[in-house]
Amino acid sequence: MNPKHTLVEQTKKIFQNKYNKNPEVISISPGRINIIGEHVDYNLGLSMPAAIDKYLCVAISKNKEEKINGYSETLDDSFSNNYSSNNDSRHWVKYVHGSIIESLNKSSDNLGFDIVINSTIPMGKGVSSSAALEVSILLSINKMFNLKMSNNDIIKRCQSVDHNHINIKSGILDQSACLLSKKDSIFIIDFFNMNIEYIKYNLKNIKWILIDSNIRRELASSKYHERVDECKQALEILALQNNNINNFRDLNINRVKEISILPLKLRKRVIHIVSENDRVSKMKEAIKEQSIKKMGDLLIKSHESLRDNYEVSCTEIDSMIKFSKSIKGWIGGRIMGGGFGGATINLIELGHEDSFIDKLSIFYKKKFGLNCDAEDLSFVDGAETIYINSLN
Ligand code: GLA
């Protein structure tokens, strides 16, 4: 049995033991990485994410108590709430409750659910365990009530969970990646029109390695909101000056002169967005041409822009990337995700993975007294609902 099926079977058993019945629906969602296209989702740009072989599984059934009873095997924690209100401040409870409420449009009374969550996606490591949780619950409810929500609808409602229940005004990169990915592929998602292009991934001589810096910044979510606001502000100023500019896609790398009207800080933010979109398109070409060197250079350029223009990196990760340049077999890498700590994604020549990880770990420990954790990545299919038992 593969790890995905093992997780499903395990989750089903936990549910049966906990609630003395079978779950009606089981859904499973992978975590995600992002190769390139950072901080552009909420700016209607382009990203290139992929789902990874770490999973979160949700088993769920209706109950007649008008309560949501939840158990997380991963956290060994549980809750029991009224369906209509949640005063629980635990993060995972807010995600579960928020996902159920958003999926049913807040409109359904007399409902209750029993739910079990079980996950192999590391939490707080920048691979979107929370998006996987939202997506799994939304998919389950969609199936259970035959709501016929489209993928885009599911993604939007997951975003509403972040906005309305967690108070993070995130984009939709994470949920899109968890839901829409395909095995052995990466995809380019255009957040302007939600167009998706899959690229079969058959590069044999390289490995993608995720390195967790183990740096978590308290300020990360307020800084994220600061960036969202700065981009909004920049766009307002540009639109006032030129009514041909309605969004950042109306600018391109050759028209950045037009942003000289902006104060320096906002100009830098816009340069990042416009140049990052350009790098995503170039990465697509580089992958198609199997040009490893170009791919590495684009990752390095992306890191530099996130560090200098968007200012979402941190000393520890900048040092890691700088040091990595001296390691044989490292082709390129960059800070990944929201930033201010978290993980880096690295492109490594096959055969050099272990020495890269060893050398980087020794350097990092010596310089910052911290361990860094490495993960070898493979790309898998997006989320699915895989079990329904109507004989409950
Ligand atoms: C976080 C957010 C995403 C996206 C990335 C940065 O992961 O949840 O929506 O904005 O940061 O690319």
Overview of the structural elements:
41% of the residues lie in helices and 23% in strands. Helix 7 packs antiparallel against helix 8 (292-308). It is α+β, with helices and mostly antiparallel strands. The strands form two sheets. Strands 1, 2, 3, 4, 5, 6, 7, 12 and 13 form a nine-stranded mixed sheet that branches. It has helices spanning 3-19, 91-103, 129-144, 151-166, 173-180, 220-241, 264-288, 292-308, 315-324, 353-368; strands at 25-36, 46-62, 67-72, 77-82, 113-119, 185-190, 195-200, 206-212, 330-336, 343-349, 373-376, 379-380, 384-388. The chain is globular. The longest helix is centred in the last third of the chain and has 25 residues, at 264-288. Strand 6 and strand 7 form a beta hairpin. It contains ten helices and 13 strands. The site of alpha-D-galactopyranose has 10 residues, from helix 5.
